[in-house]
Amino acid sequence: MTSTGDGSGGDVGCAPEDRQVPVTSTAVKSWSAARWISRVADEFGLAKVGENPGYTAGSTFRAHYTDRSAGGLMATSLSLARSCGYLGFYWAHDAQLWDGTVDAAEFYGYTSPDAGAPPTALQD
Fold first, then answer.
1. How far does Cα 40 stand from its chain's mean position?
2. How remote is the C-alpha of 108 from its chain's centroid?
3. Do the Cβ atoms of 42 and 1 come closer than 8 Å?
4. Which pLDDT tens digit goes with each residue over 69-84?
5. What angle, rounded to 10 degrees, do the helices at 33-43 and 73-83 form?
């Protein structure tokens, strides 16, 4: 699954009662992409992983991408991953983890078992 933290639906995460909402309900039109895709995956018993939008998005998005606060892309994406029960999370265009655009150590902190996030591809 991609589009985790893309701003759709206000980046609102998943809720336990989502599985009870019919996919034909008009309520789902206001959901974030992560929440919607998670709802569909749950119905069909599919495992879920996520990926953030890439750095090449518009210049306005770049500020969100590099924002290290609790409202920035990294924190938002990992929060969505936790609330939606992802099995893993991938950082799109991972070169930005190593070139200083975003902080790899911060990513590890959000994805560590102590942070309460599910295991990611970066953990052994």
1. 16
2. 15
3. no
4. 888 999 999 999 999 9
5. 20
